[in-house]
Amino acid sequence: MAKRLANVDTSRCVACGVCRLQCPKEAITIYKGCYAMVDSEKCVGCGLCAKACPAGAINVMERGQ
Ligand code: SF4
Ligand code: SF4
């Protein structure tokens, strides 16, 4: 399993879906049209979603923190 994992700050997320389109692992879904949700088993911690997010709502962190 990857060492890093994307984490969404749901209070900042505007559910635009940009992160979902960027993710090479199809690890992101937009939960009920409200906010982005990351599948921790699929995420490899690449950070592409965080770079693309216009709201700065995603941080990539070490797992287990
Ligand atoms: S860090 Fe990479 S693999 Fe994980 S959700 Fe973001 S784009 Fe997808
Ligand atoms: S790109 Fe950012 S604001 Fe847009 S759905 Fe993803 S986490 Fe939310």
How is this structure best summarized?
The chain is of the alpha+beta class and 65 residues long. It has 2 helices and 4 strands; from the N terminus they run βαββαβ. It has helices at 18-22, 48-52; strands at 4-8, 28-31, 35-38, 58-62.
Can you describe this structure?
- This protein is α+β, with helices and mostly antiparallel strands and 65 residues long.
- The chain is 15% helix and 28% strand.
- A hairpin with a 3-residue loop joins strand 2 and strand 3.
- It is globular.
- The strands form 2 sheets. The protein has a two-stranded antiparallel sheet with strand order 1-4.
- It has one domain (4-62): Alpha-Beta Plaits, CATH 3.30.70.20.
- It has 2 helices and 4 strands.
- Bound molecules: iron/sulfur cluster (2 copies).
- One iron/sulfur cluster (SF4) binds at residues 8, 13-19, 36, 53, 55, 57-58.
Total DSSP E strands: 4
- Tell me the domain tally: 1
Task: Evaluate the radius of gyration.
Answer: 10 Å
What compounds sit in this structure?
iron/sulfur cluster
With helices defined by DSSP (H or I, 4 residues minimum), what is the helix count? 2
Given the helix and strand composition, which structural class is it? alpha+beta
What is the 3D shape?
Answer: globular
> Residue-averaged pLDDT, rounded?
96
Strand order of the largest sheet: 1-4
H/E order of the elements?
EHEEHE
| CATH topology name | Alpha-Beta Plaits
Helix content: 10-25%
Instruction: Just name the CATH architecture.
Output: 2-Layer Sandwich
CATH class: Alpha Beta
* C-alpha termini separation: 15 Å
Biggest sheet architecture: 2 strands, antiparallel
Q: Give the low-confidence spans.
A: none
Residues in β-strands, percent: 25-35%
